[in-house]
Amino acid sequence: MLLTICLPVFNDSRALSTTIESLLSQKIEWGTTAEILVSDNFSEDNAAEQAKRQLAQTSGSRVFRQSENLGFLGNLRFLSHAATGEYIWFIGAGDTVVDDSLEIILGILATKQFDWGTVRALFDFHDNTGYFLPEQVLEACDSQEISKVAVFNHAISMNIVRR
User: Exposed, middle or buried by CB within 10 Å (0-12, 13-18, 19+), for 71?
Assistant: First the structure.
């Protein structure tokens, strides 16, 4: 598996649904090069059940519901341990991936070896209206060159890391 897309969620089933819809609209074959993992961090809404319904026909997808709240970092840690991809991309509930961009990212991951990358302008927090695709979709580097990446964003959804 090349890429694991990890979706941590807590009490935000509607936003999670939007994110899953944007992923399922991508033109890739799920389960061969990419997988989707959802971890419901003991939500009080129906996030896990909803994700299971949405992903029922999607190869390479797994939905977990935690038996207690692990905290944000604990939920990310859980997802990183469950991931089977060479690369992990955490995407926050509500963030949407622009049409056809995942195919571009997978192509870059398959041809270039890097430790860490920042996705640039491929999605907008909770809203992708009025958007244009940039020329460069991913800035990548190895662990010795991280400072060369021009755009670093602390938002979890912007970063892809090598396991």
Answer: exposed
**Cα–Cα distance, 12 to 16 (Å, whole number):** 6
Burial 101-131 (b: 16+ CB within 10 A, else e): bbeebbebbeeeebbbbbbbbbbeeeebeee
Helix, strand, coil shares of the chain, percent, nearest 5, are 30, 20, 45
Residue 143 confidence (pLDDT) above 90: no
Strands (E), 20-132: 34-40, 61-65, 87-90, 116-119
| Residue scoring higher pLDDT (56 or 123) | 56
pLDDT (0 to 100) of residue 120: 58
Spacing of C-alpha 92 from chain mean position = 7
Contact 11, 75 (CB under 8 A): no
Q: How far apart are CA 40 and CA 77, in angstroms?
A: 13
Token digits for 56? 């029922």
Q: What residue type is 139 in one-letter code? A: E
